[in-house]
Amino acid sequence: MTDTSAETRRPPGPREPVPLGIDRATLDTLTGLSAKYGNMLSFEQPNGRLAYFVNEPDEVRRILVRRHPKYRKGPGFERVKMLLGNGLIVSDGDVWRRSRTMIQPAFKVQNVHRLMKTMVLCADERAQHWSAIADGGGSLNISEETNEFALALILRSIFGCDYERLGMRDNNPFEFLSRDSARDLSVVMKVRELRQLLLEIIADRRASELEGQFDFLEMYLAARDKHGQAFSDRELLDELMTLIVAGFETSANTLGWVWHLLAGHPDVEARIIAEAQACLPGVDAVTSDALQAMTYTQQVLEETLRLYPPVWLFTRRAHEFDELDDYDVPAGSDIYLSPYLMHRTAAFWPDPESFDPDRFERGSRRRQELPFFPFSLGPRRCLGEYFSFLEMKLHLGLLLPRFQMRRLSAREPELELAINLRSSEDLRLSVSKRTH
Predict the structure, then answer these.
(1) What average pLDDT score do residues 291-309 get?
(2) Where is 99: in which H helix or E strand?
(3) Distance between CA atoms of 38 and 376, rounded to whole angstroms?
(4) Positive or negative, the Cα torsion across 406, 273, 392, 297?
(5) Can you tell me the mean pLDDT for 416-436?
(6) Burial 167-188 (b: 16+ CB within 10 A, else e)
(7) What's the pLDDT score for residue 212?
(8) Measured between alpha carbons, how far is 353 from 340 in angstroms, rounded to an integer?
(9) How far apart are CA 313 and CA 22, in angstroms?
(10) What is the rounded average pLDDT for all residues in the chain?
(11) Which among 41, 86, 100, 193 is least surrounded, fewest beta carbons within 10 Å?
(12) Is residue 5 predicted with pLDDT exceeding 60?
């Protein structure tokens, strides 16, 4: 338990214990407490542990960047650990530092660029599917479509030629991850069954001699720590499951929200199309420089992530004493940080509920000063951020000029606030081919 004595300098907050989880009730609680006590508040939890909700940009950066060694993963990560094991997302301390150092080379810019042909292939599969539906005057479950695109891409990026060899295109053993958004015990059990399949794939890959093969599995197998040690089978399984789940969910959810937003904002849509036609006039024009030049599309993605950050609530636990602003943070205190709430705080973002990609126009504000952390900040910032932006820009750049989506309902979807932020129901849009 933490020291909650009178000597501890604490920000204001309620006197009664406050229960928090990772759900809608928690968002409502934090919203109400912030309105009453401000952007720095403290409270005790039912277990007696002291907790802080921090919604001040400078203090969030202090926790995640400048003083990150003082903090480790907080409450709520137990559920993630059940699903993914002790991979990069949930590990701490020396285990995390070793894994991060070993995995980081796989995500170097030049390595990610080697996967662009795979991104094009996955976008082309969606185009063929959408074309058939558009010809029939149908509609798309865009949540399913972006899930299938992102899952196929991350699996191809991990397994390379094994994706086709094992028949994953037509009989994908990982498909339930994109179909079932719940992360309950039944999904945990299905994931555990996959670990045996992964072990077989790993064993086959170790026994094979693939000339010129490049994929994430090959990079992970080749990774060595400072002592020259490779990942054990268990470590490799945990990191691969983390890469599969985290590697597709963020991009899939964000792309679903982007298509939904663009379907209601034809002016923004027109600007992306013009940019895509200038930068990507054809598949042969897909290069890293062309995608880098799609600066307005980048702004649209960032504004979407502001409104719908993939992880809406981060937690940390202080493992040594710290100070935030004028307040003490005793060791053992829990810290709650919410990108969703910070991104929608009017003091930081004018008219925060509106969709306005021009907020992120280069030169309007220094990028590092923005109160914006959809992929976290500091050393624990998502390693796959560049990969994710590249695939999303390519997806939009190749598909938006070809297909027009429109909303089937004027009603804004409700949010599902679990480990990931999603729509509580699948997003459906009408689809038609554009005429040029």
Answers:
(1) 97
(2) helix 93-103
(3) 22
(4) negative
(5) 91
(6) ebeeebebeebbeebebeeebe
(7) 67
(8) 11
(9) 7
(10) 91
(11) 193
(12) no
Cα atoms in the Cβ-side hemisphere of radius 13 Å centred on 307: 25
CA-CA distance, 330 to 408, in Å (whole number)? 51
Q: Which residue has the tokens 């990560």?
A: 77
Beta bridge partners of 335: 52, 316
DSSP code string of 146-193 = HHHHHHHHHHHHHHTTHHHHTTTTTS-TTTHHHH----SHHHHHHHHH
Query: Are the C-beta atoms of residues 140 and 431 closer than 8 Å to each other?
Result: yes
What's this model's pTM, rounded to 2 decimal places? 0.94
* Rounded Cα–Cα distance for residues 342 and 57 (Å): 8
Closest Cα to residue 151, out of 61, 66, 219, 251? 251
Per DSSP, 226 falls in state T
Please determine, for residue 175, whether its predicted confidence score (pLDDT) is greater than 70: yes
- Residues of the chain with pLDDT > 90: what percent? 76
Could you tell me the CA-to-CA distances from 89 to 103, 116, 174, 360, 383 in Å, in that order? 12, 25, 20, 28, 10
Across residues 338-360, what is the average pLDDT? 96
Res. 245: pLDDT tops 80: yes
pLDDT(2) > 60: no
Please give the class, per CATH, of domain 24-431: mainly alpha
| Distance of alpha carbon 251 from alpha carbon 126, whole angstroms | 15
Average pLDDT for residues 219-236, to the nearest whole number?
Answer: 95
Do strands 50-54 and 334-337 pair parallel, antiparallel, or not at all (unpaired)? parallel
Question: In three state form, how does the secondary structure of 10-51 look?
Answer: CCCCCCCCCCCCCCHHHHHHHHHHHHHHCCEEEEECCCCCEE
Return phi, psi of residue 275, to 5°: -65, -45
Residue 362 has what DSSP assignment? B
Gyration radius of the chain's alpha carbons: 22
- pLDDT value at position 208? 84
Q: How far apart are CA 406 and CA 429, in angstroms?
A: 5
Rounded CA separation 117/139 (Å): 28
